[in-house]
Amino acid sequence: MVDYSTISKVSIAPMMDWTDRHCRYFMRLLSPSAFLYTEMVTAAAIHHGDADRFLRFNDEEHPLALQLGGSNPDWMASATAKANEYGYDEININVGCPSDKVQSGQFGACLMATPDVVAECYQAMLRETDIPITVKTRIGIDDQDSYEFLTTFVERLVDAGCKKFVVHARIAMLDGLSPKDNRSIPPLNYNRVYRLKHDFPDLEVVINGGLADLAQVDEVLQHVDGAMIGRQAYHQPYFLAELEHHFNPHRTLPDRGDIVEQMLPYVESVLAGGEPLGRVTRHMLGLYAGQPGARAWRRYLSQNSYLDGAGSEVLLGAVASMPVAA
To answer: What is the DSSP string of 120-185?
Structure first.
């Protein structure tokens, strides 16, 4: 088991279609201590399908949490039992995703309205593992936009045994807004999350939503236990290295070119396994964001990563294509 006292206060959000194992390996090079989360995997997929396809990861990714989506206690327990064999550091229940597809499967943010269902899943999972089980949720849904609604949900899960909540500080609009719009249109309400931590001091509360610079992260950590970074970590991944240096000053900021060099052996292993180069390089497009030559880097990767026979030399070519060394 991981010693939680040594884990960074920074975590990287589970992001569908983004935080796969290739993305997480890349992010780990930028931040040795950030807590990484998988993209959401449905309990049904693990229960009925090829569990290894969904659960395998690189040892370098630790500390790592698996995020599960589901509302069937038996399937959630089955998925937990299988995940337990892989050595994850945490299993997280998704009660935050607002997409129509997730709602039709009766999980995600809509489950905030049925805390007893989530509690039943939680307790079924708890019987299958000693790995910490946590919950990621919103501050409310639709017209259920009150602190009382949030605390009713949290209290039921605390009664079930939950000790850690990751809270996206927006309500989820389940009808009328796309998942993309749900990440930006409902206004952020950090104060509600701060109040939750104040009123439940024994809980570990991690805040998520809109965190994009060091000052913001410092500010929220005055009130809660952790900060979860989402889109900023993907679109400008070097931000992770800056956060690492900020909280661990003894770690020097890595050179971006060195990160590329460190990715080469991993890329070769992925290619040897039969996967195309683009599955890795698509996560690296933002490495030079804001730097001279960033556009040339992105263009070269985009134009060459998907060609037949593309290999790790494409990464070196992308660096060489940049008109100004970054």
So the answer is: HHHHHHHTT-SS-EEEEEEEEETTB-SHHHHHHHHHHHHHHT--EEEEEEEEE--SS--TTGGGTS
The pTM of the full predicted model, rounded to 2 decimals, is: 0.93
pLDDT in tens, the chain (326 residues): 444 444 579 999 999 999 999 999 999 999 999 999 999 999 999 999 899 999 999 999 999 999 999 999 999 999 999 999 999 999 999 998 877 655 555 778 999 999 999 999 999 999 999 999 999 999 999 889 999 999 999 999 999 999 999 999 999 988 766 666 666 678 899 999 999 999 999 999 999 999 999 999 999 999 999 999 999 999 999 999 999 999 999 989 999 999 999 999 999 999 999 999 999 999 999 999 999 999 999 999 999 999 999 999 999 999 999 986 44
Q: Which positions are annotated as active-site residues? A: 97
Per CATH, the homologous superfamily of domain 4-247 is Aldolase class I (3.20.20.70)
CATH 1.10.110.30 is the classification of domain 256-320:
no
Question: How far is the C-alpha of 211 from the C-alpha of 58, rounded, in Å?
Answer: 27
Could you state, in order of their start, the residue ranges of all structural domains in the chain? Answer: 4-247, 256-320
